[in-house]
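Deviation from plan, reported transparently: (6S)-5,6,7,8-tetrahydrofolate complex.
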Amino acid sequence: MGLEISVGSRIRKSPFFEKTVEEGVTHFSIYNRTYMATSYGDPIGEYRRLVDGVSMWDVTCERQVALKGPDAENLTRYLTSRNLGGLNIGQGRYVPLVDYRGTIINDPVLLPISSDEYWLSIADSDILLWASAIAGERGMDVEVYDPYVSPLAVQGPKAVDVVAPLVGDWVRELKYFAFRETEVEGIPLVVAKSGWSKQGGYELYLRDQTKGHQLWDLVKEAGQPHGIGPGCPNYIERLESGLLSYGADTDAQTNPYEVGLGKYVDLDREDEFVGKQALKKIHAEGIKRQFVGFLISGESIASSSQHRWPILMDGSQIGFASAAAWSPRINSNIGVGLIETAHSEAGIKVTVCADAGALDATVVKLPFEIPE
Ligand code: THG
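Because the crystal trials were delayed, the predicted structure below was used instead.
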């Protein structure tokens, strides 16, 4: 049955949208009310390109929420459980956000643009509404808005050899999550060492939405000698690397401790932040679920399914798998998911109720071990 989703004007199109279509994109998802390319029809080829070479992908859906004004820094600190210490302009950080119940509501990358301007580069939930409501209720002197900036990711071991000739050799020295504002052939960019893969690479944040095609072509051309090709936030590589996918791996009860983000919670901070009291309680009581990996038996399974797969132990459900796929490097099916802490130790045998039937699986720690 050829079910299709209509492409209309109420969902945002990226400035690279036509380029992705020209490159042969076959699937989109919707993320932050934006079309997000998720496949070019060749999952293993796209994976290989990322792991062995270089891939470029459109993450316009990772919207920026700009906080600007005298209280921008106060608001930033109040919104996240992380202790930001001395914030350095030009040095980004991963800053999970929780609500007043201590539940994760987003896991943005923070970009301190200047002393009175901070961007939250967000995952899939409405942080603009959240941040502007909190700022308004607290009477803070800060503007909260979408600055219309669209990231283009260049990822893979050869990404540096594509981006350095284009932008400058200084990108070779950038620390992880560090960034700088620059221009390439008149295109205003923020260039960051970041991206949702563990293969290394950069994100080029496009600041002029009329120049998407031009930027796409420049990157593609610079990447030709290195075999660059189009890709998407990669389903298989992120599983292997144990990168969290907010909204896929998390549910309406997930707290940071369950999914390995406890290191971004500082309960000893003297200042208040959203969720502090709830997180103290959760921490004192101990977590009931844990985010783990699964090595899953059987023939190669297609990338996951439309639903979460129940995980059983001795016939009772102990959690769910939120994503699963064949891993070419591990040479096995793998998955990730949240299961009861009591049964989350590495080596425990479980059953994954996949679409195609019950599969034997073993619990492993994240990230997966990748053989050389
Ligand atoms: N790009 C941009 N914004 C984003 C994402 C992105 N916002 C939402 C989402 N993706 C954020 N999620 C992550 C999760 C992990 C990492 C990056 C984005 C990551 N983590 C490293 C790790 O786990 O090893 C480093 C963590 C650290 O140093 O603290 O890279 O893709 N623009």
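The domain at 17-60+148-238 is CATH 3.30.1360.120 (Gyrase A; domain 2). We consider this an acceptable substitute for the interim report.
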